[in-house]
Specification:
The structure is a single chain. The chain has a four-stranded mixed β-sheet with strand order 2-1-3-4, with helices on one face. By secondary structure, the protein is of the alpha+beta class. The chain is 39% helix and 22% strand. It starts with a strand and ends with a helix. A hairpin with a 2-residue loop joins β3 and β4. Bound molecules: FE2/S2 (inorganic) cluster (FES). FE2/S2 (inorganic) cluster binds next to α1.
């Protein structure tokens, strides 16, 4: 199981973390990957100045926005679920 943790701390929340969280959830559904990818909100990942912050397993991905969720999914999540 891969865990995609989306920061919903206040700095990231202001930058739109809920839209990112929801887009990841949509992608999981579209790929029927509910048993392979868990998308969950988390509190501050310690990179408030560089958010929105996302952690994919133990890899921190910074500067997330609505526009790069799909690319991040393709580059960092899809290869891990095969
Ligand atoms: S609020 Fe998201 S990294 Fe701190």
């Amino acid at each position: 199981m891969i865990t995609v943790s989306v920061c919903i701390g206040s700095a990231c929340h202001k930058r739109g973390s809920y839209a990112i969280l929801n887009r990841f959830k949509q992608l999981v559904q579209q790929h029927g990957a509910e048993d392979k990818v868990n998308v969950a909100p988390v509190f501050c990942l310690g990179e408030c100045a560089n958010g929105v912050s996302v952690r994919i397993d133990d890899q921190l991905v910074l500067g997330m926005c609505e526009d790069n969720v799909d690319a991040t999914w393709e580059q960092l999540v899809l290869p891990r679920i095969g």
